[in-house]
Backbone:
């Protein structure tokens, strides 16, 4: 039976749910959950999306992602493939980790978004010891919303949700707790639609979303890398250690600011395998996160070409 086409929006907010295959737990312990959050952080830095809420349970996880015009399938494929590789190596197994492809629902209005985050933050209520203390669950973003736990991985944009309620963080947190408490009895996603009336119908402030154009021409990326490095960058040049570093930057920027696949990226190089392009991507990520010379290159490109319109 053919799969139903996934509903997508180039600037959409999505409710993502991933689940393990029936015979295994997706997260066997806290270290597994921490690894998934670290991977989420990594690809957030690569694809420049926003996370508005999350909750990791033993067999499944919920995440609210604002893709900021990146491809949601590309984002989740990268995250889940990385976690599956980690999981299979750690537990000495082979095969699938996730049940089918991830589930996604496009969030199409503000009321639904707020109620959705409240539902997600209530997920731990079925865990013994958290029945009336869902805010204490370490692998949900609720505690970060309330300021009782730090955002260890720098993943969450909680102000986007709280700003709907008030500019005053204390008032916003109080109103949000009221919302989560009202949604406490919701047992499934269908009930969220019935509980829309729990959400205030007027808001004091709405955060601006950061929609990033993903049509950066590869030639512009090549030129910018040449400018930043003060070296004429040629993706097809071989046997140059410095050029390998620039190739790595090229790959990671292409992944971030274009919708071009890794397979297609291969065509910009001379006689290179998909495996080697993947290695260049990993090297590029390390450069972006550890080399002060390159840490702001993607942000600078986004700023420089924010209003870029390709010539006809």
Residues:
């Amino acid at each position: 039976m053919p799969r139903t086409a996934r509903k997508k929006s180039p600037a959409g907010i999505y409710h993502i749910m991933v689940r393990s295959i029936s015979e295994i737990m997706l997260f066997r312990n806290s270290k597994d959950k921490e690894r998934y959050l670290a991977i989420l952080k990594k690809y957030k830095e690569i694809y420049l999306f926003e996370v508005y809420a999350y909750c990791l349970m033993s067999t499944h996880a919920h995440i609210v992602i604002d893709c900021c015009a990146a491809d949601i399938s590309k984002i989740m494929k990268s995250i889940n493939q990385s976690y599956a590789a980690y999981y299979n190596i750690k537990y000495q197994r082979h095969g699938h980790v996730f049940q089918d492809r991830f589930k996604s629902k496009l969030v199409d209005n503000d009321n639904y978004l707020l109620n959705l985050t409240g539902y997600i933050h209530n997920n731990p209520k079925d865990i013994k010891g958290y029945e009336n203390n869902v805010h204490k669950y370490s692998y949900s973003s609720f505690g970060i919303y309330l300021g009782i736990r730090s955002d260890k991985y720098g993943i969450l944009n909680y102000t986007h949700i709280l700003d709907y309620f008030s500019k005053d963080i204390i008032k916003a947190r109080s109103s949000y707790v009221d919302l989560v408490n009202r949604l406490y009895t919701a047992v499934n996603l269908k009930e969220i639609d019935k509980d829309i009336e729990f959400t205030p119908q007027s808001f004091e402030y709405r955060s601006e979303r950061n929609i990033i154009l993903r049509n950066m021409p590869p030639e512009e990326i090549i030129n910018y890398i040449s400018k930043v490095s003060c070296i004429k960058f040629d993706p097809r040049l071989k046997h140059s250690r410095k050029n390998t570093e620039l190739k790595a930057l090229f790959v990671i920027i292409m992944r971030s600011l274009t919708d071009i696949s890794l397979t297609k990226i291969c065509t910009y190089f001379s006689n290179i395998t998909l495996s080697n392009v993947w290695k260049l991507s990993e090297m590029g990520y390390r450069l972006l996160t550890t080399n002060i010379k390159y840490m702001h290159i993607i942000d600078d490109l986004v700023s420089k070409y924010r209003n870029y319109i390709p010539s006809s």
Summary: The mean pLDDT is 87. The chain has two domains: 13-198, 218-304.
